[in-house]
Amino acid sequence: MDHRLLHLLVCPICKGPLTLLRDEAQRPAELACRADRLAFPIRDGIPVMLESEARAWEFDAEAPTP
């Protein structure tokens, strides 16, 4: 995923910043919003920024503070 795109994207719910989460192979897997505690999937390199596609996310266990 292009880092320039990451800086342009915001949470579709609260318009807050997103955190990039990576899978075990260090590939971009999700974009997460700390405020809403939701993680939006990245499928085939494209972020799916729909609330209905998001999963609940507990940031304290899964990602370090940026």
UniProtKB/TrEMBL annotation:
Pfam families per the UniProt record, alphabetical? Trm112p
GO annotations of cellular component type: cytosol
Question: InterPro entries from the entry?
Answer: Trm112-like
Name the PANTHER family for this protein.
Answer: PROTEIN PREY, MITOCHONDRIAL, ZGC:162634
Provide the family line. Answer: In the N-terminal section; belongs to the LpxK family.
HAMAP family registered for this protein in UniProt:
UPF0434
Q: What is this protein called?
A: UPF0434 protein ENE75_23685
Q: Which source organism?
A: Rubrivivax albus
